[in-house]
Amino acid sequence: MTDNSTRTDLFSPARFGAIELSNRIVMAPVTRSRYDEDGVPNELHATYYAQRAGAGLIIGEATNISAQGRGYAATPGIWSDEQVAGWKKVTDAVHAAGGTIVSQLWHVGRFSSAQLQPDGQAPVAPSAIAAEGNTYTVDGFVPVSMPRAQETEEIAGVIQQYKIAAMNALRAGFDGVEVHAANSYLLDQFLRDSTNHRTDRYGGSIENRARLTLEVTEAVVDIWGSDKVGIRLSPVTPDAGNTPPDSNVMAMYGYLIKQLNRFGLAYLHVVEGATATSREVPAGVDLDALSGLFDGPFIGNNNYDLEMAIKRRAQGKIDAVAFGRLFIGNPDLVERLRRGAALTVAPRESYYGGGAKGYIDWPNGSY
Ligand code: 8OZ
């Protein structure tokens, strides 16, 4: 077998801000929908993450910062004491296995059903524009609900939700947090002119549309320090109903990334193309030019294989690569890639829902 570590430094340790990575192969946040209604992690989730501690860094699956931020049944939360205690089991298990793990802070915005919201209320969004598509509830898939546009005065409350979740992540023993500003959820809904039609200081100009993401980042940095905070963006990923990205991707995300530089964050993480599908980008978009505007470490993601990662690392385009789906069927992915060993392809049916089967039972450590 080949020892790929002689071909690239992707298998060598790195330091992103104050986050220590044992190698530059990162586990992307992967929604697995295996939680009870209380969104509390338990031994099952601790085992799952500990099995994947060989990742240079684990980015935990998208985690609801509040009941209002929840858009899918069976996803975890980080607003209650029970959830914090559950996450502590996960972080302890990952640390005992030698790993590093950050929590991805998530508010879905309009991509929710009233069925999932406190008191059956409408989900909140920058503007009252309905998404298309279905979300998952205990009754199965249902269309997402018409959202309610947030009042300007409510936005401080949203920032507070992020702040409390960031404090909870600290109490739960995480090594940092990632702000989920990707994939057409709340922060991305504010960034994009297709979903943000506001006329207050959070809408209209690029500066105004970037404001909430920057204020949330600042709030989270206040808790953690900038060197333990990363952010994930997906400048061209359409949402589930194919709402288009911003009308001027380069200007919008270019401005945002330049503004993010003032924090000195641990890393920027970008979905290059459409999440879990194509790396294609619309005409006029150059994602490498956008990531090149960032002053700190850059994690590239989306449909990579090892060869592409080695090549893009050698070209100086990435500092680390994040693999999502490959970590489902290969808990020992880093070692498999290093040895050039065969990879297990997890079938789609194993991705979401269920229990231990298809979750913690993949071949581990046998090459
Ligand atoms: C798959 C299913 C549900 C949610 C994302 C948090 O795309 C998600 C997600 C992925 O960022």
Walkthrough of the structure:
- The chain is α/β, with parallel strands linked by helices.
- It has one domain: Aldolase class I (TIM Barrel, Alpha-Beta Barrel), CATH 3.20.20.70.
- Helix content is 29%, strand content 16%.
- The chain contains ten helices and 14 strands.
- It has an eight-stranded parallel β-barrel with strand order 3-4-5-10-11-12-13-14. A two-stranded antiparallel sheet has the order 1-2.
- β11, α6 (249-260) and β12 form a beta-alpha-beta unit.
- It is globular, with a radius of gyration of 19 Å.
- The mean pLDDT is 97.
- Bound molecules: 2-Phenylacrylic acid.
- The site of 2-Phenylacrylic acid has 6 residues, from loops.
Highlighted features:
globular; 367 residues; TIM Barrel; binds 2-Phenylacrylic acid; eight-stranded parallel β-barrel; alpha/beta; two-stranded antiparallel ribbon
Write the topology of this structure.
Elements: E1 14-16, E2 19-21, E3 25-27, H1 43-51, E4 57-64, H2 81-96, E5 101-106, E6 124-125, E7 134-137, E8 140-143, E9 148-149, H3 155-171, E10 177-181, H4 186-191, H5 206-224, E11 229-233, H6 249-260, E12 267-271, H7 287-292, E13 298-301, H8 306-314, E14 320-323, H9 325-329, H10 333-339
Parallel strand pairs: 3-4, 3-14, 4-5, 5-10, 6-9, 10-11, 11-12, 12-13, 13-14
Antiparallel strand pairs: 1-2, 7-8
The structure holds 2-Phenylacrylic acid.
Residues 31, 62, 72, 182-183, 275 line the site of 2-Phenylacrylic acid.
